[in-house]
Design goal:
The complex is a heterodimer. By secondary structure, chain A is of the alpha+beta class. Chain A has one domain: Phenylacetic acid degradation B (Ubiquitin-like (UB roll), Roll). Chain A has 2 helices and 3 strands; from the N terminus they run E-E-H-E-H. A 3-stranded antiparallel sheet of chain A has the order 2-1-3, covered by helices on one side. Chain B is mostly helical. Chain B has a two-stranded antiparallel sheet. In chain B, strand 1 and strand 2 form a beta hairpin. The chains are: A alpha+beta, B mainly alpha. Chains A and B meet through strand 2 and helix 1 of A and helix 4, helix 5, helix 7 and helix 13 of B.
């Protein structure tokens, strides 16, 4: 088995037509960035999925760990005053 | 000491099952039981291999398609299948197996692909039957898997299902054209249906009573419906389509059960199924050899491109330094 000869893994991001951010769509193997873009075009945009591609070699992505879920995201749960619905505004004020 | 470890493990497993029961997705870095990981690698790998090997029976007809339009349709379908294989290999890789390891296991027979691709495609009508029946059966298997518990697998299935409905429709379109054509064309269409009907029924796997992996896989939501349930659904949907085409399903026992609203039908020959799975189908050797040849013949290209990329990045480093 010659795993070391495998082309590196790239993560692929596409921006669609309607001004949204680039979005992760999947990954693929390629020898370099240029080829990763060409392969991504064939693998992920066969049906007009996008107008712009980003490719990032997977080893350069740092990700949060599943065990950090609590400390990272729980604090937001009790801060309901960050949402507009927390504040009662009388109807007579009109649309706000 | 050992008993403490066991308790800990089972607590983890209980928590894991609870997450699945709540409908949460399991992601690559999450803890998962080894058996869940292994089952998924087997299932996703087998599915990926089926997409790749599935290109071969259709590739046979690309240069002989009857019109330029049909040729373009078939090319697009076969290209989709390559893409679907790639989505699935990537999903399997998130479980800690490499692409090369999966290829090696396909090539040495340790991993399987769908038995349907070991049947030959003898006439152009087979392209119609394959799209209509084989892709039809595949879609029926795949649609529920969009809700499977493993995130990367579910996401790959969403893309695949979105793209695949054209495959079945283009096949049915070929069948429509041929059934409405000359007597000879209609006979070809019927012949293709005769040959692909039972192999298509086999695609759902053995009967529930003989299926080895079912119960655990269903608890883990990596299998969403039983084999027999999906097979019945396929028959119920396909019989009226065959009637529309004016073709006859090759089954004397086929009848609509007015009490249940379901068709009664004959089981496929399971002995044949096991023979084909175990390497003795009409085209097993041809398919696997074509696959191995493509891999071996492409080695110098893969190595050359990697060497070129390494050389260029080394040059860049020197320039920067």
């Amino acid at each position: 088995m010659s795993a070391s000869n495998e082309w590196p893994l790239w993560e692929i991001f596409i921006r669609g037509q309607h001004g949204m951010s680039h979005r992760h769509v999947g990954s693929l193997h390629a020898p370099d960035a240029e080829r990763a873009i060409k392969n991504a075009r064939d693998v992920y945009t066969r049906r007009n999925e996008g107008v712009s591609l980003w490719v990032v070699e997977a080893k350069h992505i740092s990700a949060s760990s599943p065990s950090d879920k609590g400390p990272l995201y729980d604090p937001a749960k009790d801060k309901i005053y960050r949402h507009p619905t927390f504040y009662d505004i009388p109807d007579e004020v009109g649309k706000m | 000491m050992a008993s403490t470890e066991n308790t800990e493990l089972s607590e983890q497993e209980i928590a894991f099952q609870a997450r699945i029961d709540r409908g949460e997705k399991i992601e690559p870095k999450d803890w998962m039981p080894d058996a869940y990981r292994r089952s998924l690698i087997r299932q996703i790998g087998q599915h990926a291999h089926s997409e790749i090997v599935g290109q071969l029976p259709e590739g046979n007809w690309i240069t002989r398609a009857p019109t330029l339009e049909r040729k373009a349709n078939l090319l697009a379908k076969v290209q989709d299948e390559a893409g679907h294989g790639l989505y699935l290999y990537c999903a399997a890789e998130t479980l800690g197996i490499t692409r090369d390891e999966m290829f090696e296991m396909l090539h040495n027979g340790k991993m399987k692909y769908s038995s349907i691709f070991n049947y030959p495609t003898l006439t152009w009508a087979d392209m119609g039957a394959v799209g209509w029946l084989v892709d039809g059966a595949a879609i029926m298997n795949q649609v529920p898997l969009q809700r499977t518990s493993y995130g990367p697998y579910a996401r790959a299935m969403v893309r695949i299902c979105k793209e695949e409905s054209f495959h079945q429709r283009q096949g049915f379109h070929i069948m429509m054209t041929m059934s409405n054509g000359s007597g000879e064309q209609k006979r070809m269409a019927q012949d293709a249906l005769n040959r692909f009907w039972y192999p298509a029924l086999m695609m759902f796997g053995p009967s529930d009573k003989d299926s080895v992996h079912s119960a655990q896989s269903m608890a883990w939501k990596i299998k969403m419906n039983s084999n027999d349930e999906l097979r019945q659904k396929f028959v119920d949907e396909t019989v009226p389509q065959a009637e529309y085409l004016g073709l006859t399903i090759p089954d004397d026992q086929l009848s609509l059960d007015s009490d249940t609203g379901h068709y009664r039908f004959s089981e496929p020959d399971w002995e044949e199924f096991h023979q084909v799975i175990n390497g003795n189908g009409p085209c097993n050797e041809e398919r696997l050899n074509a696959r191995i040849k493509a891999w071996d013949d492409g080695a110098w290209v893969r190595e050359g491109m990697m060497a070129h990329a390494n050389k260029r990045s080394a040059k860049k480093q020197v320039a920067v330094g």
